[in-house]
User: Fold these one by one.
Assistant:
Number 1:
Amino acid sequence: MGLEHMPWLTITIFLPAFGAMVLVMLRSAGDRTARIASLIFTLLTAVLSVGLAVGFNGASPDFQLEDPKLQWAPGLNVYYHVALDGISLWLFLLTTFLSVIAVLGSWTSITKRTTTFFACLMLLETAMLGVFSAIDLVLFYVFWEAMLVPMYLIIGVWGGERRLYAAIKFFLYTLVGGVLMLAGIVMLYYALPEGQRTMSIPKLLGLAPSIGGSLQITLFILFGLGFAIKVPMFPFHTWLPDAHVEAPTSGSVILAGVLLKMGAYGFLRLCVGFFPVATEMLGPVLMWLSVIGIIYGGAAAMWQKDMKRLIAYSSVSHLGFVMLGVFALNSIGIQGAVLQMVNHGLSTGALFLLVGMIYERRHTRMIEDYGGLWDEVPVYSRIFLVVALSSIGLPGLNGFVGELLTLMGTFDSGWIQGQLWAILGALGVIIAACYLLWMYKRVFYGEPKPHKDGPMADVRPIEATAAVMLLAAIVWLGVYPAPVLRSMKPAVNMVVKRFETGRGSDAARLQPLTALAPKVGTLGGIDTPEEDDEQ
Amino acid sequence: MIGFEPIGLSDLGAVLLVLILVLFGLASLLVGSLFRRGTGMSAWLSAVGFILTGAVCAISLGRGERTEGFAGGYVLDDLTHGLVLPCAIAGLLTILLAMRYLHTLKHGAGEFCGLLSLATAGMAVMAGAQDLIVAFFGVELLSVPLYIMAAYSRRDRLSNESGLKYLMIGSVSSAIMAFGIALCYAALGTTNIVAMAEGSLAAGPTMVDNAFTTATTGVGLGLLVVGLGFKAALAPFHMWAPDVYQGAPTPVTTFFSVGPKVAAVGLMYRVLLVGFGDLAHFWAPVLGVIAVLTMTVGNLGALYQSRGKRMLAYSGIAHAGYMLLAVIGAGALRAQGSSEWMAASVAIVFYGMAYAFMNLGAFAAISQLGEGDLEDFSLERLKGLGRRYPWSAGALALFMVSLTGIPITAGFWGKLTLFSAAISGQTVWLSVVVVLAAINSAISAYYYLRLVAYSYMYEPEDTGEAHGWVSSQSGGWVMATAGLGVIGLALFPAVILGAAEALQKSIMP
C-alpha cells in the first residue's frame, strides 16, 4: 500500500484514541511520561491534520480526503465513512490545534490521576475530529455522543467545587438534545422513499429537501434542539456557565473552543442542508434568538464577578454572531460564521487558558481579588490585552473579520428584518468592549492587591509556548484570513445554492438538488481535478 | 391443537434446544441432590448445557432454516435461535455469578443450577411456541423454577416474601393467560397461531369473520397480553417486580431481570404478529400506551432508588418497555397490510443480546459490593470504587453507559434498531412514542450516571473493609465476558444485524 493510499484521515482521527490506550498501558510510568506522551500524540495529530490540509483542494466544493467506506450496521445502511469539505476542514484543524493547547494548558494544573485525565482528553479529541469528518449520519451521531462521557469525566473528576452538579447538568442537557436527534435521524431515514433510504450525508443533502413541509419542520426541530442546546442558543444556555466555571482549564478550552462549534456546524451542515423549507420558516425565530443571545449574553457577562463565568457568558454572545451568520443564508454570512467559529475557538480558548494560569497561582477567579497585575506580571498582562482585544473584535486581529462578515451577511440577507438584526448585533460588539475592557481595567490596573504568597510568577515557558501559538494564530487570521476564506468559499457557495434551490415549494426542485449534492471524491481522494472548474 | 400423530425424529430435532437444556438440567438436578458435594459437578453440567445451547444458536442464527415439530406447535427458526441465545448466555453467566452464593448455602446448592437450566428450557419453549398451549407450557416451565429460586434463602425473611409474592402473582397471571387462551380457542377452534391467522382448519371462522369471533378473540387476546405483561413486568402489571427483585438472592435477581423479559417479549412478538396480526390495528396502539407507561414508570421509579438491586429492578422494567417498541412498530406495519413487519424481529434479538450482556455485567459489578448475596446494598458504597478497583469501576461505567444507550456500546445499536423498528411503521403516533422513548432514555442517564459519579468523583470514605467490597474471581469473569460482549457488539453489530434477512424469511411458514 503506497503512502498516498493510506487512510490518512482515519489515521488522524484515531491517533489520539490510540494514544489514550498507550497512556493507560503506561499508567505506572508516572505523570511526566503521561504529559509528554500525550503532547507527542496531539502534536503528531496536529501535524497529520496540517498534512491533510495541504492535500486539500480548496477550489472544489466537494467532500475530499475520503477514506474507503466500510459497512458497519447492515439493515440501516450505516457505514463508517469520513471525508472533509471546505467547511469542516477548518474546524478539524482548529480541533487538533486546540488539543495541543489543552495538553499544554493542563501541564502543571492537573496533578491528580494525571494519566486518566490525558487519556480522557485524547479520547475526546478523537470524538471531536470524528464529528467534523463523519459524512454518515449515524457515524456523526456516534461521535457526537461519544464526546459526552470523556467530557463528563473531565468536568466531574477534575473540576471545581460544584463539579458534580455541573457535570450532570452538562450531560443531561446535551443528552436530551442528542436522543431527540437520534429519533430525528431514524425518522428522516424512513421518510425517504423505499430504495433511496440512506444515512450518507452527501446523498441526504440531495434527497432530504424533498420531504414534505410539516415533516420537515418536525425533523428540523428534532435536530435543531440538539444543536441549539450545544451552541448554546439563548433559552438553552443555562448549562454553559456552570460547566465552564467548574471545568478544569483545558476542559474549558476544549468546551468553548470546539464543543460549542458543533452545534453551529450541525445547524449549517444538517439543518440548513437537509431542511431548506423548514429553515426558511424557522429562520427568523433562530435569528431573533441569536440576537437576544448576543445582547443577553453580553449584558449578563457585564455583571459577572467570576472571570470564567464572564467569559462563559461572552461565549453565549459570540456564538450568537455565528448563528446570525449561519441563518443569514448567504455566502458572506456563512463564511463569516465559519471564520467566527474558528476565531471564537482561538480567542475564547486563549482567555480560558489565561484565566486558568492566574487561578493556578492564586486559587481564585474573582475579579475583585485581583488588581494592578500590569506591573506585577508584565508579559502576562500584555498577552491578555491582545487576546481580550481580539475577542472584542479589534481590526487587525481575528475577531474583527468574522464579526464584520457575519454582520454584513445579516444586513444583506433576504430576511425583511435583516438590517434590524445587523444593527442589534452590532450593539453586541460594543457590549463586548464594555465587559472585557472593564474586567481588564479592574484586574490589571488600579491598586495591586498584595497576597500572602507574595507577588505572582509571570508566565512559565510551557505556558508561554501555548500563549505564543495562540497569539500567532490570532494575528495571522486577523491580518491575512484570505486563505481560509478562499478554501471554504466553494463549499459555502454550494450550501447557499442548495438552499436557494431547495426552499422553493414545487416538487420539481428534487431533480436539481440531487445534481447539486456534493460529490464524494474517488477513493483516496487527494485530487479531484475534474471538479475544479465549478467556481 | 397438537395432533395425535406419533412423535418422530423431526419433532425431536425441532425441540433440540429444549432437549439439551432439559437433559443437562435434569442431570444437574440429580447430581446436585444425590451427592452432598455435588455443587461443582452440577454447576458444570448446567454450564455445559448452556454452552451447547448457545453454540447451536450461534451457529444456526442467520441460516434462515425453519423446522417445525409437533404438528406445527413448536418451531425452531432463526427467531427462536436469536431469543434463546441471550437466555443461554444469561444462564451461563448467572451460574458463574452464583458460585459464591452457592458456597454459602448449607443445603440445596446442587439443585440451584438444575433449576436454572429448567427455567431456561422454559424460555426456549416460549421462544419457539407456535401454539398457545405450548406457549402456556413454556411460561409455566419458566415460572415454577423461578418461584423456588426467588425463595432460595429459606431462612431469609425477604427472600421468602419475594418467593411468595412471585408465586401468587405468577399463578394469578397464569390463570389469566389460560382463560385468554380458552376464549381464543372458543372463538376460533384452534390454539395454533398459524392456523388462527389463516382461519382455523380450512373451514373454521377467522377472527375478523363476525362480531362474535372478533370480540371473543379480542378479549382473549387482551387477557393473554395481561398475563404476559405480568411475566415481563410491563406497567401497569409491574408492581411485584421491585419487591421480588430486591428480596431474591442477587444471582437470581440477575437472571430474573434478563431471561424472562427477553423470552416474554419475544413470545409476545410471535403470538401477536403471527397469530393476531389481523387485529393489529387494535392491539398496536394499546401496546404503544403500555410501552410508554412501562418505560416511564421504570425510569421514574429508578430515579429515586438508593439501593442497587431495587434500582436495577426498575431499570429492567424500563428496558422491557423499550423492547416493546419493536412489537409495536411491527404491529403498525401489519395493520397497514405491509409484510415488512418481520424486519422488526432483528431488533428484539439484538436488544436481547445487548441487554443480556450489559445488565448481567451491571449486576456482576454491583454484586461485588454486597457482604453476602442476599441483602440489598446502598449505592453510596460505590464511592471511591474507581480508586480501589479500577477495572471493576471501568466495567461498571461501561455497562451504565451501555444501558443509557450511548455509543460506542452495544446498548446504542440496540436503541437505534428498536427506534428504527418502531418508526418503520411510519405513523405519527409511532413517532411520538419514539420521541417519548428517547426522552426516557435521557432520564435514565441520570440514575445510571450517578453510579459512575459515585465510583469516580467521590473519594473512598474511611477504610475499604467497612464497605464490604468483595472482589470475587467469578464475578470478574462475568464482568470481563459481559464487557467483551458489549464492546464486541458495538464494534461489530453486523454479527447479529447481518442475520436480519434470515430472521425475516424464517418466521412465517
Number 2:
Amino acid sequence: MTVNLSKGQAISLEKAAGGTLSAVRMGLGWQAAARRGLFGRRSKEIDLDASAVLFAEGQPVDVVFFQHLRSDDGSVTHTGDNLVGGAGQGGDDEAILVDLQRVPVHIDQIVFTVNSFTGQTFAEVENAFCRLLDENTATELARYTLTGGGSYTAQIMAKVHRQGGGWSMTAIGAPAEGRTFQDLMPAIAQHL
Amino acid sequence: MTAELVRGQNHALPGTDLTVRVEAALPVLAGMTLADADGRGREGWLVHGDALSLPGLLAPGRPAPAHDLRVDLARLPEGARTVRVWLALPSAGPASFAAAGAPRVVVGEAAGAARLAHTLGGLAAESAVTAVEFYRRAGAWKVRAVGQGYAGGLAALCADHGLPDAATLARRVLASSAAGTRESAPPPQEEPAPQPGRVDYRHPGRAGRVGPAVDVTHPGRPARPEPRPSSGEPAAPPPPVAGDASGWSMEERLHNQVWGMFEDLARAVAAYRGAVSFADDRLEREIDGVLADPRTRTGPAADRARERARSRQGELIARARAALDRDLDQLTAEAAVVEPALPPAFARWDNPVWHGYRVPEQAPLALRLGDLSLPERIGLRIPMLVRLPLERGLWIDAGRGDGPATTVLDGGELRREAGLLATAVAGRLLAVHPPGRFTVRVIDPAGSAAHTLRPLVDSGVLAEPPARGAAGVAAVLERLTERVDLVQMAVRSGAADALPPGLDTSEQLLVVHDFPHGFDDRAVTRLRYLADEGPSVGVHLLMVADREDAAAYGPLLDPLWRSLLRITPVPDDHIADPWVRQVWTYEPPHVPPGSAILPQVLGALAAARARLGGR
C-alpha cells in the first residue's frame, strides 16, 4: 500500500504497517541533468542529499548525512552520497536505513530531510521523489513526488517516533530552503 | 566431546564405522551419494531408504526431523572414494530451507564418544544441501563440512555430484518419500490411489498412506511451533556461527567477522554511553529547573520534583543497560564460537590450534596483535587483527606510561615483559609465514635482552645471531638500508629480475632492543629511513623502547614514534577504534606463563626449514 502524499499531509502509519515497524528505509531518487554539447560533463549536475537527524526530547544528538554515513550507535546507515542522480525511474539514488530495534533508548524521533546541495529547486529537477519503506516487507509506506513541488530547495520529509513500545511514522512533507540539513534545523524544530 | 566444524573445515575421522545424526526443525529427507576418484557418481550410487541401498550405507527413506544414518567406510563399493551426506526438503514440506531453520549434522564413531558437528547456517532459497563429505586423503578418512546448498533442489544436487540421469533419480527419491510411510519405497505409480471420503484402516506402519507424510509427533502434544511470520514481533536472533561474514576464504570471512564484531561492540557501547550521558544531562537540567524557581526550591514539591527527575534518569539508564546487555550477550555468544574457530595467525597462544601447528603454505591475511575490550564488559575480548604485510612498524613501549598496571611493575620488570612480548610477536610472525618467506633480525646492542630472546635464538629461526655493539648495529642497518634501496629501485624501474643474486627478498622484520644504546646519529637516521620506506618493500620494524631513553634527541624523534603502532607489555587504555573513537583497553598477546608453545612451534618451523634447505 502506498500513500501518495501531498505536502503538509501528516498521517500515522502504525496500523497501516500491520504491526510495529522494525526497520525502515528512506529512499531518494532523481533524474540526472541532461548532458548536451561537446563538453557534456560541464552540464550542471544536480546533487540532492538525504539526511536523517536523531533527536532526544527535542535535542539533536546525532545526524546521518553524506559526511557522516553511519550514526555513532550504528543503527542508522546512509548508503553513500550520489552526486549526479540516476534515471529517476523509481530506483533509489540515495538511501538511509534505520534499524529501529538498535536505535539508542534515548532517541525518540528521527527526522528525514532532502536538500538540493547544488541549489536547483525541485521545480527544475525531473522525476524527483522520496519515499519511506518498511525494510522487512519492502512495502512503501509513503511517497512524495518532489518534482513540481514549487521553487523550494529542501523538504522535511517525515519523522519516525516512538509510540508505546514501538515506532510509528508521521509524514510531514514541509517545504523549506537550505543547502544541507544544518540550514533546516529551525524548520525541523517546528515539527518535533 | 563434540567438536564444531565450520563450513569448509576438515577433520580426521575417529574411525570408519560411523553414525551420522541429522537434526532439523522440520521433517527433511536425508541420504548419501558416492563418488569415485574423479568426483563422478555412477549408476546406483545414491542411498535413500531400502529401495536405493548399498552395502555399508544405511539411510531411512522417509521425511523426519531427525535421522540416524550409518556409514561403514570399510565396506564401500569398488571405486568409491567419497561419500557425501545430503539433506533435501520433501515435496510436501516448505519450498526452501529458509523456513526450515539451520539443520545440524553430527558425525560420530558407532562405538565411540568423539563427535564432530556442523550446523548448516546461511541457507535461504535452497531446497537441497550437501552437508558433509567423507573422503580419503593420504590413506586416512577425513570429514569435511561442505554446507553447499542448491536452489535447484535434489536434481541439481545429484547432477552436481555427477550421478547419471540426475533428474529422474531425484524425482524418484522425492516421490517415494511423498508416498509416505513405508520403509521400502517402490515407485509411486504402484500405489493404489486412495478413495476420497473413505476411511483407511490400514496400519500406517505397514502399507498404504494416511497422509502426505508420516506424523511422528505425539498426538497429544502440539506439533513443532510454526516458523514465525516475518512481520510483527522481532524474532530472537539466530545462534551465531563462526565465519558468518563475506569473504573468499574461511580466513577472510573470520577476519571480516572479527572486524564486524569490533565495530558492533564499539557502536553498541556508544549507544549506551550516549543514552547515559543524555540521562545525566537531563537530570542536571531538571534539578537546575527546580532550583531556579524560588517557589519550588524548597518544600515537599521540590523533593518530589527531584525524586521524579532521579527516577526518570534511573529508568532511562536501566533501559539503555538492558539494550546494551542484549547486544553484549549476542556478541559474547558470537565470540564464544568464533574464538575456537580462528586459524593460528588470529588465535591466542592458549588456543589448541597452536598445538596442532603445521608450517603454513601461504602467508595469512592478518595477525592478532592482542585483545581489545571495553569496561562495559571486561570479559568480552575482541581480537585485534592487523592486516599483513604490516603497513607501519610496531613499538612495544617499555616505558612507564600512565596506565594503572605500570605502577605495579618496576622498570626492569617492565622491560623484561616488553622483551617477552617482542619475542612472542616476532615468533608469531615467523610461525604464520611459510618457511623462508619471513626473516627476523635482532639488534640487541648491550645484550640486555639475551634472556627474553632465548626462544628465537635456541630454535635457530633467526637469520643470524642478535647483533651486538655499535658495530653490529651499524652493519645490520646498513644491509637493510641497502636492501630497501635496491628493491625500491627495482620496483620503480620495473626490473625485479635485475636485483643482485643473493639478495634476500623475503619479508624482513628488524627487532630493535635497547634503543638508542649503540646508535650513533648515522644509525638513527638509517633507522628512521627504514621506518618510513621499509614497509612498502617488505622491511618492517619492531622497536622495544622507552621513549625516555631517547629524551636526549628532544622532539626530533617524535615523528618516528608517531609513525609506529604503539603496543604495551601490560594492559593499557590507548587504542581508539576508527568509528566512534572510543578508548579501548589493549591486552598484549603474551604466551601464557609456563607454556612451552612458542619453543615448540618455532622448533617445528626450524625443522621444516631444515627439510626445505636439505632438498
Number 3:
Amino acid sequence: MKRRREFNLFLILMLVLALAILAGCGGGGATTTTAAPGTETTAAGNESTASTGAPSGGDIPIGILTSYTGEMGAFGVPWFNAAKMAADEVNAAGGVLGKQIKLYTEDDRSSVEEGIKGARKLIGANGVVAIHGPISDILLAIWPIAKENKVMATSPAAGTTKLDETGGDYEFRTVPSDSFDGKVAALVLWENGYKEIGMIYENDEGRQSISAAVRKEFEALGGKIVVDVPFTPRQPTYSAELKKVASANPQAVWLGSGQESGAVLLKDAKQRGYNWKWMVSSDLAVPEMFDLVGKDTLEGVLTEMPSAETSTPEFQAWAKRFQELFNAEPTGGFQSNSYDAIIVMALAMEKGGAATGEAINQNYRDVSNPPGEKVFTFKDGVAALKAGKDIDYEGVSGPLDFDAHGNVTGSYVSMIGKDGKWTQLKFYPASTWEQ
Amino acid sequence: MGNLNLGLFISGIVTIIAIYGILALSLNLKFGVAGLIDLGVVGYFAVGAYAFVLTTAPPPSELSHYSIGLGMPLWVGFIAAPVAAGLFSFLVGLPALRLSGEYLAIATYAAAEVLRAVFTNEDWLTNGVVGFNNLRQPFRGAFASGDVYQYFFMALSLAVLFILFLILSRLHWGPFGRALRAIRENEQVALSVGKNVTKLRIKAFVLGGAVSGFAAALYVSFATLIVPTMFVSEVTWTVWIALVIGGTGNYVGALVGTAVLVTAQELTRFFQASADLASVLAASRLIAMGLILIVIIRFRPRGILPERHYVDTKAVPVAESTAQAVSPKRVVE
C-alpha cells in the first residue's frame, strides 16, 4: 500500500519535472527571439488576422513550418520574419495574380515527428500550396507527403547532401548543399599551394559529408589526402588523433569540427608543437574562436564560409529594410535565403498563372535561372512577366540559379586569421562552380 | 483557397494515436499490471525501429557508412522489430529487474540514453546521424493514390493496435496477468504461493518490449526515415503521461489516455495567433499538458478509466483499497 503511493508520488514528480524541462527548452527558444515591433498585423494566423489589403478572389496560403522551440529554436523567428517580409512585399505590390499571400505557421519543435504532424496540418487543414522552412531531417520527412499532395517543400537552410542528386521535384533549397563547403575548402587549400593534406574531422553528418567533398574535390584538382582521421567530439584531449595525423607528415590539415571540440583540438596541437597550416571548417569561422583559443593559435589559419554578396546595393538596401522592420541583423542566419524562397514561389505562381504548388514546381527554375531579364524584386519581376519577358530573379542571398535537383550554387569567401580577426582573402562568386 | 484535405490531417493524428497507443499498451503491461517503473520506453522502441530498417533497407552504397542492409521484404522487418525489441528488453531486464522501484526507473532510463548515444556514433550499424531516408512503406505499391494510402496506413496501424490489445487483454484476465498483479501488490505473498517472481517479471518486461517493437515498425514506416534524434526521452514521457491520464492498469484506459493527450495537443494548433507567439505557444502547450496531468491526478488520481478489480472498490474505503485482496466484500468477476 505504502509502496504504491510512493510509486505514484515518484511518478508525478518525474513527469512534472520532465515537462518543466521540456517547457524550459521551449522557453529558451522563445527568449532568443527578438520581439518584432509592428508584427501584430502579421499575415500569419488562422482565423484571427487578415493580410493587409483587400484580397480579391481569395488568398494563397503558404505554410511556414520551422523550429520555434527545440535545438534549432533560435532560427524559427528570423526565418519567419524574412518570409513574412517577402509575403508583405508581394502583397503590397498587388499580390500574386491579384491574390494575397497568407502565411500559416507551425512549430516543428526541431523534431521529425512534430514536423510531419505540422506538415499534415498545414496541408490538410490550411490547404497550403507550399511549405517553407524546415531543417534537413524534417524536410526529408515531409517531402514525400508534400509531393503527393502537390505542395512545394522548400528550405532556407537544409544543407543535407542527400538531396543533392534526388531533390528538385516539389522541393528546392535556397541554401547551397553542404557539399559546396567541401569543394570550397579543397579549392582554397589548393590555391594556397598545398598538394598533400591531412583531414581530421568530427564524426557527424555535416562534417562527414563535407570531408567526403573535400577529398573528392582535392583529388580531382590533383592533390593527395595523406591521412584521414575522424574523431568523436567532446573529448578532453585529442593527442591520439593528432599523433596519427602527424605520422603522415602532411603539409596542411583540414579540420572539420564544431567550436567546442575545435578549440580543444587546436590548443592541443599548438601545445604539442605541431605547426601545420590549418584550414578549418566554417563552423569555426566565427569571432568567438579567438576568445576560445587565443589569437596566436589562429594566426594564419585558413577558413571559408558561405556568404551572400553583401557588397551589392541590392543586398544593402534589403538589409536596411529588414533591420528597420524587425530591429535585428539579417546576417548569419539564412534570413535572406528564407526571403528569397517566398519571392521565387510568388514569381513562379505568377508565371504559371495559377496559385498552386504545381505552378511553383513547374516554374521556379524558369523565373530564377538565366536566360532572361535580371530582376531584383518581385514588383519588377511581375512587371517584366506581364510584358511577356523571360525573367531571371537575382536573390538577396545569391543569384539563385537552381540545378535540375533544386540546388543552388552559393558564393563563398575564404578568410585567414590575422591579429585576432578573420580577414577576407578571396571572394568566390557562385559562378566559380558553373562548369 | 487551396485544396483542403482534412483527411490527411486526421488520418495522421489517428495513426500517431495508434502508434503511441501500442506503446501505452506495452507500458501498461510493464507498469500498470506488473508494477515495473520503466523509464526506458524509447529504448526498446528505437531498437525495434532500427531492426526494422536494417532488415529492410537496401544494401549500402559507396557513400553510406552502414554495413548491414539486408533488403528483405517488409514483413520480415515487422517480425524483426518486435523480436529485437524483446531481445533488448531481455538484456536490459536481466540485470535491471533485480532492482526495485526507483532504481529500476533510473537503470532503464540510463539504458535508453546510452542506446541513443550508440545509435548516434556507431556509423557502421546505423549510418550514424545521417540515418536512412526514403524508406519503403508497407503495401504502398498497391495504392495509386497517396490519399487512399494514408487511410490504409491508418487502418493498418489501428488493426495492429487492436490485435495487440486483444492479446494483452486476454493475458490480463488469465493466470499470467493475475500472477503479475499479485506480484505488484505483494511480492512476498506471491512468493509464498510459489510464483517465480523474477521469471514473471522478465516475461512481462520482454513481452512489453516486443509489443513496442510493433509500434516502432509502424512509426518508421509512417515517417519514412530514421535518425537517432527521433528517439529522445520525450517519447518516454509522452507514453507515461498518456498512461497516467488514461488510467494505469487498464488497457482501455491506456488507449483513452493516448487519444486524449494527442488530440489535445493537436487541437492547440488551432489556437495560435501569430508566428511571434508561436514560440511562446509551443512552450505553453507543454505547460498546459503538465496542468492537465496535475488536474487529472488531483481529481481522478487513478486516471480517466481506473483499473478494474476483481473486487469492487466502492465497497471498501478508498484508503484501504489495496487491502481488498485480504478482505473481499463483493466479488465482481
